[in-house]
Amino acid sequence: MGCGRVEPKKGLMRVVRSPDGLVSLDTTGRASGRGAYLCADAECVRKAMKKNALSRALKQPVDRSVYVLAEEAAIERGRTS
Fold first, then answer.
1. pTM for the structure as a whole
2. Residue % of the chain over a pLDDT of 70
3. Residues forming a β-bridge with 19
């Protein structure tokens, strides 16, 4: 979403909009609902936030806190480029 790179699924993080409209980071990769993938890279998450990419992909406004959680998860994985 942020950088447009093609990565294996293991290198991506999934953000999901559940059927009841809740948007969250899907750590299992199996939550039901509409999903969008981000590179597990903090810079990619920042680019996606700047472009409002998750809101467009999930067809719903996405709170900034979701991007913050995704950025923190990327930093935990050690990808901050």
1. 0.85
2. 94
3. none
